[in-house]
Design goal:
The chain has eleven helices and ten strands. The protein has one domain (3-318): TIM Barrel (Alpha-Beta Barrel). Residues 55-59 and 128-132 have low confidence and may be disordered. Helix 5 links the parallel strand 6 (119-123) and strand 7. The protein has helices spanning 3-9, 29-38, 76-86, 102-115, 144-155, 188-200, 214-226, 245-253, 259-267, 273-290, 307-318; strands spanning 14-19, 45-48, 54-59, 65-70, 90-96, 119-123, 172-177, 205-210, 233-238, 295-301. The protein is an alpha/beta fold and 319 residues long. It is 40% helix and 18% strand. The strands form two sheets. Strands 1-2-5-6-7-8-9-10 form an eight-stranded parallel barrel, surrounded by five helices.
Length: 319
């Protein structure tokens, strides 16, 4: 079922989750165990992140510098297939612009279509230092709106090559939104206009970047509606679980951590920081549900231990 169909048919707000593939050389069993922990809470879909190749430079003993290109977390497509067919939960792989050509993207989309995976999240991706292998006959998607347009073309049966009687795909496309403004945007209005361009290119729903102050999301969602963005807008929440995240999350995701949360987390013993984060996320979620959001998307990374402490009482709250 498509993500938008889940929201349209839901009789109560939905709780979805986002996980990451295992590192290269690691077993998929640990990740599938996370899905197993989430399954009793009836997630309509689970997102699986994707990571492009990363370039590093290593100094050698002879003084030279060697360039290495690595894929740290391969296996998004395979993990999505395992989730969808082992657990019966719709999987949403992330499809990236950066690090991939349009030709590579088309190949991946064809594979997903063959697998019966028809939900995607189209994102630009983090800067990794690795550029796509482009030649005169190969092209790239510079922005997420370009990627959405490519997927929309395939949904209309238009492929990169002019194929006779090409079968259209049937992808439901999500995109990211930024309540606190994307780092590359000069202002919030400019950022919302670019989000609108992604929707006009064919995006079916929006999932927000994590935030810890609901005022940011509610004001941003209101401005999105005023700008003419009519697709579902879903808030994304992250549970603070360590003191290290007080500096890591703002630096990595450009999100502000409210003073009250930061003070309480710093004052807590190391083993109780997650309790503070769980209580904060629960209050955030309850307020958002009262505001009428269609669901909540939890960024959980590699463990379900903390999120179930938020999701279980919320299930009782929404009936």
């Amino acid at each position: 079922m498509k993500v938008t169909e889940h929201y349209a048919q839901a009789e109560r707000p939905l709780f979805s989750y986002e996980i990451i593939p295992p590192k290269r050389g690691s077993s998929v069993a640990d990740v599938l165990a996370v899905v197993d922990d989430l399954a009793p809470y009836d997630p309509p879909f689970i997102d699986v992140t994707s990571h492009g190749a990363e370039v590093t430079y290593e100094e050698q003993s002879d003084g030279t510098v060697q360039k290495r290109t690595t894929r740290k977390r391969p296996g998004t497509l395979g993990l999505c297939a395992a989730i969808q067919y082992r657990f019966g939960i719709d999987a949403v792989p992330h499809i990236l612009c950066r690090g991939f050509t349009q030709e590579e993207t088309e190949d991946a989309l064809i594979e997903l279509n063959y697998l019966g995976i028809h939900n995607l999240l189209a994102v630009r991706g983090d800067e990794t230092g690795k550029r796509a292998d482009t030649r005169a006959d190969r092209t790239v998607n510079e922005y997420a709106s370009d990627l959405v347009a490519q997927i929309s073309d395939m949904n209309e049966g238009r492929y990169l090559a002019d194929l006779l009687d090409a079968a259209p795909t049937d992808f439901c496309v999500g995109v990211g939104g930024y309540p606190e403004t994307h780092v590359d945007s000069p202002n919030a209005s400019w950022d919302i206009e670019h989000l609108k361009q992604k929707v006009e290119a064919g995006a079916d729903y929006v999932v927000s970047q994590m935030f810890f102050d609901n005022r940011h999301f509610l004001d941003w969602a209101k401005r999105c509606r005023e700008a003419g963005i009519g697709v579902p807008i879903v808030p994304g929440l992250k549970i603070l679980t360590s003191k290290r995240q007080l500096s890591l999350l703002p630096r990595s995701f450009y999100t502000e951590i409210p003073e009250a949360l930061a003070d309480e987390a710093m004052a807590a013993p190391d083993g109780q920081v997650a309790d503070v984060g769980v209580a904060w996320a629960r209050e955030q979620a309850e307020e958002l549900l009262e505001a009428g959001v269609p669901g909540i998307h939890f960024y959980i990374m590699s463990t379900a231990r903390h999120v179930v402490r938020v999701a279980e009482p919320l299930r009782d709250l929404v009936g």
